[in-house]
Amino acid sequence: xxxxxxxxxxxxxxxGHLIIANYLANHxxxxxxxxxxxxxxxxxxxxxxxxxxxxxEMARLATDNAQNIQVSDVELRLPQPSYTIDTLTHLKExxxxxxxxxxxxxxxxxxxxxxxxxxxxxxxxxxxxYPRPGYENAELASHPSVTITMTPQMELSATFxxxxxxxxxxxxYFVPDPVLKFIESKSLYK
Length: 190
Prior knowledge:
By secondary structure, the protein is of the alpha/beta class. The protein contains seven helices and six strands, in the order βαβαβαβααββαα. It has helices at 15-27, 52-62, 84-94, 106-111, 118-124, 158-166, 177-185; strands at residues 2-8, 32-37, 69-72, 99-105, 126-130, 146-148. Strands 3-2-1-4-5-6 form a six-stranded parallel sheet, with helices on both faces. The radius of gyration is 16 Å and the shape is globular. It starts with a strand and ends in a 5-residue tail after the last helix. 33% of the residues are buried. This is Probable nicotinate-nucleotide adenylyltransferase. Belongs to the NadD family. It catalyses: nicotinate beta-D-ribonucleotide + ATP + H(+) = deamido-NAD(+) + diphosphate.
């Protein structure tokens, strides 16, 4: 089985994440997409990242009835900081019957040379790239391991959702209803 891995903090998961995962699971050569909840991106600053297990639960709630999309907590069980190459190596050892590929935005493709062992990633894994505004001409876009997709673009971010919640604005339809109920029940992002 060919599994695409979409890594993220999912703080919170929103419909933009789900559209990307659904498109890649159903409109590419991938069989499934796993949403890999990351404890902390080594290239990002600690900010208003909420509890990892709350983010994991929201991702599970959002994908409860999804076809070909599931949530993975693999990075929560690995040493920190979690680097993509280490997670890929671990998954390859755990599931030798699967072929794993990375899913990333074109903004991450631009920063890929900053990643730990990025040349190994390019050598050993396919990378499916979804477009992000302002990052259309990444240097690695023509690499043989990279597939640029026609994933629908959406100007929606978790930062916008967190800010809106903090400002007591309605975020209905930006996040799935079960996720919104979870956020409200735990008074998250206020």
